[in-house]
Write a structure and sequence with these properties.
Structural class: alpha/beta
Number of helices: 8
Order of helices and strands: HEEHEHEHEHEHEHEHE
Low-confidence stretches: 1-22
Helix content: 25-40%
Largest sheet: 5 strands, parallel
Length: about 250
């Protein structure tokens, strides 16, 4: 009996020294990405929707005060020309802007033209606000949904790729309770937040804890090795006829 207990204790001790489960392999060539490299202590905080612009700017300013950067995924209908200086300040502070579509509709079951249209209209709205072309690198579909009529997302994926995106960016951690968010975060994590009060309050405490733990907070493009966003003088303009025959 003593030998059995000793053996069990040894197994428990060994398990404590080993990962609970095999760490998933990082494949940055995958179409859908939920996290980055596991061998680098980097994470990306992302902020979706921007329904409440007050908290979009508050979170932007919080990032700046704490010396970190992140990626904002607004919907195009909230990116207005009159707010151009505020969106520009997001970029000036070193953050990144990605696409969350134009109108926050579930896109999986939409036909290719509607998918192209919402992506193009987002780019047009952003460029109009900035006054120049800022090529968006990353796309996060509303609700994280990619399911289409086939159930496997194949046609949706094809439409997104034909538009020009090589990846869909989802997330690994979605928590607004600080301790839970912190405990779930690991190397390469992409964290999902929204522009609202409770998320702002969480980030006020979470970001310093992540920094104290040695994490570097970076943009999605940095984390996932997308490269820098290309910039050119002429804003993009959506021409409906360019996409109507897309299939």
């Amino acid at each position: 009996m003593k030998k059995l207990v000793s053996l069990l204790l040894a197994i428990i001790l060994l398990m404590g020294l080993m990962p609970v489960h095999a760490e998933e392999e990082t494949d940055l060539s995958s179409f859908i990405l939920r996290y980055g490299r596991r061998d680098e202590k980097k994470v990306a905080i992302t902020v979706d929707d921007s329904w409440d612009l007050e908290y979009t700017w508050k979170i932007r300013d919080l990032f700046h005060e704490l010396g970190v950067v992140g990626t904002f995924f607004p919907i195009g209908m909230k990116v207005l020309e009159e707010d151009g200086p505020e969106w520009q300040k997001i970029l000036d502070y070193g953050n990144e802007i990605g696409s969350h579509s134009f109108g926050h509709l579930a896109l999986g079951a939409k036909d290719p033209y509607n998918i192209y249209s919402t992506l193009a209209r987002f780019q047009q709205a952003l460029d109009a606000a900035l006054g120049y072309h800022y090529q968006v690198n990353s796309f996060r579909p509303p609700y994280g949904s990619i399911k289409d009529e086939s159930g496997d997302g194949r046609s949706f994926r094809t439409a997104v790729q034909r538009y020009g995106y090589q990846h869909i960016v989802l997330w690994e951690v979605s928590q607004t309770e600080v301790n839970k968010a912190f405990s779930k975060t690991k190397n390469g994590s992409i964290l999902l937040f929204h522009a609202r009060h409770k998320d702002y309050v969480c980030l006020q405490e979470l970001i310093p804890r992540l920094l104290e733990a040695g994490y570097e907070l970076v943009t999605v493009s940095d984390l996932l090795e997308f490269g820098e966003n290309e910039i050119s003088p002429e804003p993009y303009v959506f021409h409906k006829e360019d996409y109507q025959k897309a299939g």
